[in-house]
Amino acid sequence: MTSGGFVVSTGRIQTKELAVTAFAVLLSILAAIAIGAMSPGPSFVLVSRISVASSRSHGLASALGMGVGGAFFAALAVLGLTALLLKFEWLYVVLKLLGGAYLVYLAIKIWRGASEPLAVPGPSGEGRGLSVRRAFLVGLFTQLSNPKTSIVYASIFAALMPQSPPLWLLLALPPMLFCVEAGWYTIVALAFSGTRARLVYMRLKRWIDRGAGAVMGALGVKLMAEAIKAKA
User: Fold this and answer.
1) Containing structural domain, residue 153
2) Nearest to 208 by CA among 19, 49, 71
3) What is the mean pLDDT of residues 181-185?
4) Which candidate, 199, 156, 143, places its Cα nearest to that of 31?
5) Which of 17-21, 25-29, 109-113, 133-137 comes out lowest in average pLDDT?
6) How many domains does the chain fold into?
7) How far is CA 211 from CA 128, 204, 206, in A?
8) Distant-in-sequence, close-in-space partners of 36: CB < 8 Å, separation ≥ 6
9) How far apart are CA 57 and CA 128, in angstroms?
10) 35 touches 184 (CB < 8 A)
11) CB neighbours (10 Å) of residue 58?
12) Which of 85, 151, 167, 199 has a CA 20 to 30 Å removed from the CA of 29?
């Protein structure tokens, strides 16, 4: 009985240690993704501009779109589908070209609208040019415009996860990464939709929009250039 009890006790200790290890792995992955999300890029430029130019509701909708896109990429990485992008290089190149073209399209729209007066949101929180639903979709498509994100996620998972991760860890990753991405861009939306930020934007709208358009366009061109270089 003592021997059997010892075996049971040892099994429980090992199970507990594995659970603690898996939780530590989850925290490490979330920290790595959060650092990446906070680095300036097209997503930051887009959410901040939508928030300051339209309304807080628009900014939060675009942040939600970023979160959904992040969860989608996380699900692809968990399912191993990102291996297809690495195996079929032409597919990866095409997706990067399309993503870069989409960013350039957004950049042109922002640049051309720099001289237009600011659309004041109505009681429902919607401006003349951008609905809350459209803000969500723009955020989602901007997040999905760079398939490299999925490969980055897969690389982080491969580097930090144990060889046989528990099922709960795999299931937890997509919703947790949604929280990380949406949470960060919610902070951005709240910061840039404040009264002070909007007053500054109204005074400098033309230059801020052209700066945002230039940055977005440069990132789109860079994405397409990387795709062409990879193909060559």
Assistant:
1) 2-231
2) 49
3) 94
4) 156
5) 17-21
6) 1
7) 22, 11, 9
8) 152
9) 14
10) no
11) 29
12) 85
